[in-house]
């Protein structure tokens, strides 16, 4: 894998910083929605991050993989939990999701090294 997910998330954050200032009202709404959706509730924050990562795989979004896998590592996800989530994502998304499952595993290992 040639993508560094640490570098990718840093680059995206840098680019979005200016965008957040230029369209602060819509971005405040997006940030509030994200914070509310990912907050602990009936589902744990870890379960929600697993769901978000599965959606990142299904939609083939590298930036999303980076951010959500970083979140998984911060929340203490195990390789077994990630593997099980990826099995469901691949089941639902087929071959293209399998390719992104490899990206998730690469990102998981990279963020664990921090």
Tell me, rounded to a whole number, the average pLDDT. Answer: 95
The rounded Rg comes to 14 Å
Level-1 CATH class name = Mainly Alpha
Which word captures the global form? globular
Order of secondary-structure elements: HHHHH
The major pleated sheet works out as: none
Assign the CATH superfamily: AhpD-like
Low-confidence stretches: none
Tell me which oligomeric state these chains represent. Answer: single chain
Structural class: mainly alpha
**What helical percentage do the residues reach?**
over 70%
Determine the CATH topology: AhpD-like
Intertermini distance:
18 Å
Would you count the extended β strands for me? 0
Number of helices: 5
- Integer tally of domains: 1
> Strand portion, in percent?
under 5%
CATH architecture descriptor name: Up-down Bundle
Protein name: Alkylhydroperoxidase like protein, AhpD family
Keywords: Oxidoreductase, Peroxidase
Pfam families: CMD
GO molecular function: peroxiredoxin activity
Main features:
mainly alpha
Description:
- The protein contains 5 helices and no strands.
- The protein is mainly alpha-helical.
- The chain has one domain: AhpD-like.
- Helix 1 crosses helix 2, helix 3 (45-59) packs across helix 5 and helix 4 crosses helix 5.
- The longest helix has 34 residues, at 79-112.
- The radius of gyration is 14 Å and the shape is globular.
- The relative contact order is 0.16.
- The model has no long low-confidence stretch (mean pLDDT 95).
Helix/strand layout:
Blueprint lengths: L4 H18 L1 H15 L6 H15 L2 H13 L4 H34 L2
Helix pairs in contact: 1-2, 1-4, 3-4, 3-5, 4-5
